[in-house]
Design brief:
This protein is an all-beta fold and 232 residues long. It is built from 1 helix and 20 strands. β19, α1 and β20 form a beta-alpha-beta unit. The chain is elongated and about 55 Å long. 37% of the residues are buried.
């Protein structure tokens, strides 16, 4: 196991003087894991993050293909853009209640991620946050969320159920595109905007409950609902 200098405050690519370790212990006192810090560390399987860390930078663990699990401490408040993109071996991750921001594409293409819990502290799911998570079967969006970004869950092919709470007002373009295992979904009346092709290629979708403002043929076509899908 590689242990970093105890005097560090920020871990970034410049301070990593070793190549592609399997295990890394980050010492207490580090407050930030910088942008691209472990980007492409293909042999990394585990990492220990102390309670002093408050932020995970953009692409911090991108393309860590063999990282199987990671525990984020309760001190973390933000997860950067593409922070865990293409961590193919990651099967689960806890997002602590302290996190208020999950970046764009944060978990994109985590193909073996089967479940994830989004805490009540998060108020928006940004563009592509969980897109191409092929094994993600279900997800509950907390009441605190008000917007679901473009392609947020696009091509989550195993997704069979999702709960969208009252309070969500905006669903982005292609938000659920290609979710072929999704059979039904309820969109609450609080939603005032649904982006183009939000449900395109949801081939298993048989019924959807929608606010009446989206019931017209033109709106159904715009958001990607075929004529065979029952609209309630």
């Amino acid at each position: 196991m590689n242990e970093l200098n105890n005097n560090l405050k920020i871990v970034n690519r410049e301070v990593l003087g070793f190549k592609f370790p399997k295990h890394i212990f980050i010492p207490d006192g580090v407050t930030s894991i910088g942008d691209g810090a472990f980007d492409g560390f293909k042999t990394l399987t585990s990492i220990t993050i102390p309670d002093s860390v408050t932020s995970i930078g953009d692409q911090a663990f991108a393309w860590c293909n063999n990282l199987t699990s990671i525990t984020l401490p309760d001190s973390v408040t933000s997860i950067g853009d593409r922070a865990f993109i293409q961590c193919f071996s990651l099967t689960s991750i806890n997002i602590p209640d302290s996190v208020t921001s999950i970046g764009r594409g944060a978990f994109r293409s985590c193909r073996n991620l089967t479940s994830i819990t989004i805490p009540d502290s998060v108020n928006s799911i940004r563009n592509g946050a969980f897109s191409y998570c092929d094994s993600l079967a279900s997800i509950t969006i907390p009441d605190s969320v008000t917007s679901i970004g473009d392609e947020a869950f696009a091509w989550c092919k195993s997704l069979t159920s999702i709960t969208i709470p009252e309070g969500v007002t905006c669903i982005g373009d292609e938000a659920f595109r290609g979710c072929e295992s999704l059979t039904s979904i309820t969109i609450p009346n609080s939603v005032t905007s649904i982006g183009d092709e939000a449900f395109t290629e949801c081939t298993g979708l048989s019924s959807i409950q929608l606010p009446k403002r989206f019931h017209s043929d033109s709106e159904r076509k715009r958001i990607g609902l075929s004529s065979e899908i029952e609209v309630k």
